[in-house]
Amino acid sequence: MGLEEKKENTLAYLTVVYSLVIFAIVFIFSISSYIAFSILVDNFVASDLKQELTYISSQNITQNTKWLTFSDESIAVLDKNGNIISISRNFPSFRFYKFKPGFHLGYINGKKIMYIRAVLPNHLTVIVARNMTKFESIKKKLLSSFILALVILSVIIAFTGFFIAKAITNSFISFMERIYTMALNFSHEVKTPLTIISTNLSLLEMNPDKIYIERISRALKQLNNLLNKVVFIAKADEYSTLNKQTFMLEDVIMKALQELESLIEEKKLDVKLDLEPIEVNSSWELYEAIISNLLENAVKYTKEGYIKIKAKINGKYLTIVVEDSGIGIPENKLSSITKEFERANTDKPGFGLGLFIVSKSVSILKGKMHIESIEGKGTTITIQIPF
C-alpha cells in the first residue's frame, strides 16, 4: 500500500471517528439536558405540592369548609367514607379511590398526574394534585428541538469533519515523511564514515601508516558533526531560554576553521578574515551552531577559490558575513534552502540540516538572515543579530 493510499485511508478513518465522537458527545449532552430538565420540572412541582399540603393542613378544615371550591389549585377534601366535602373547580373528574396514600407520579384516567394524598388529624383526607400534561408537552417540544439540532449538527459534523480530519492527516503524514526522510538521510550519512573507519582499521592492522589514522580521525569528526546536528534539532526548543556567557566571537570562528583545516588545505582554499574584536554575552552553543554550519557549507561546496569571513558591529546589530566562490544555490531553491532536509546539491554528501540549524539559531537570537547566491559563482550569507 502506497503512502497516498494510506493517507486516503487514514483520512477516511479519522473523518468517521471524528464524526462519531462529536455526534456521541452532542447526543449525550442532548439526552442529559432533556433528563435534567424533566427532573427539574418534577422536583419543582413536587415541592409546590408539598408546600400546598402544608398550607392546607394549617387551615383547620372541617366538613363545612367550602372555600376550596374557588381555589385555583387542584385540591380535594374527602370525609372518612371518601365522599367529597370540598373540591377546587379545576380538579379533573377522577375516581378518588385511584389516588393512593403518599406522594406519587403516574397515569390516572389516561392523564399524567403528580399528587399527594394525606390524612389530616381530624381524619379528613386531602388530595393535592397537578396535571402534568402541559409539562409533558413542553418536554416533548424540547426533545423535538434536540432531535432537530442533532440532525443539523450531524450534517455540519459530516461536512466539517472531513476538513478537520484532512488537516490532521496532512500534518501527521507530513511529520511521518520528515521522520522517514531524516532516518533515510541519517542512515546514509552514518554509513559513509562508518565504512571509512572500518576499512582503514583493517588497513591499519596490516600496515600501521599515519594516513589511515588521519582518515579514521576525519570520519569520526564527520560522524560526530552529524550527531551534533541531530542533537541540536532535538534540543532546539531548550535554547529559547538563553544560557548566556561571555566570549570572543573570533574564538568561535577560529575553532570552526580549525575543525575544517584539513579539508581547507586539501582544497587549497584561500581563507580571508575581516574580524573586529567583538565580545559577546550570549549563548556560545547558538553562535557555534551558526558559524560552524556556515563555514562547513562554504568549505564543502567550494572546490577552489576563496572563503571570506567578516564580523563587525553595525549600529545596533552584530553582522556576520560568510562569502564563498563555490557552486552556489539554484535560484528556485533559495526560498526553501533553510527548510529541514533541503539540499541545493544532492551530489555532495550532506544531511540537509546545516542552513536549517543556522536559520533556527538566528531566529532564537531574534536576528535576521539573508542569502544571495549565483549558481556556479558563489554564495554570500549575511547574519544580523541584535547587539
Give short descriptive properties of this protein.
387 residues, 2 domains, 7 helices, 20% strand
Q: What do these coordinates show?
A:
The structure is a single chain. With 387 residues, the protein is α+β, with helices and mostly antiparallel strands. The protein has two domains: 3-152, no CATH class; 237-386, Histidine kinase-like ATPase, C-terminal domain (Heat Shock Protein 90, 2-Layer Sandwich). Helices cover 52% and strands 20% of the residues. The model has no long low-confidence stretch (mean pLDDT 76).
Summarize this, please?
With 387 residues, the chain is α+β, with helices and mostly antiparallel strands. It has helices spanning 3-57, 133-206, 210-234, 249-259, 261-267, 284-300, 354-364, and strands at residues 74-78, 84-87, 102-108, 111-119, 125-131, 245-248, 270-275, 279-282, 306-314, 317-324, 368-374, 378-386. Helix content is 52%, strand content 20%.
Silhouette: rod-shaped
Q: What's the SSE pattern?
A: HEEEEEHHEHHEEHEEHEE
Mean pLDDT: 76
Largest sheet: 5 strands, antiparallel
Helix count equals: 7
Strand fraction band?
15-25%
Residue ranges: pLDDT <50 for 5 or more in a row?
none
Q: What is the rounded distance between the termini?
A: 53 Å
What oligomerization state is this entry in? single chain
* Number of domain modules: 2
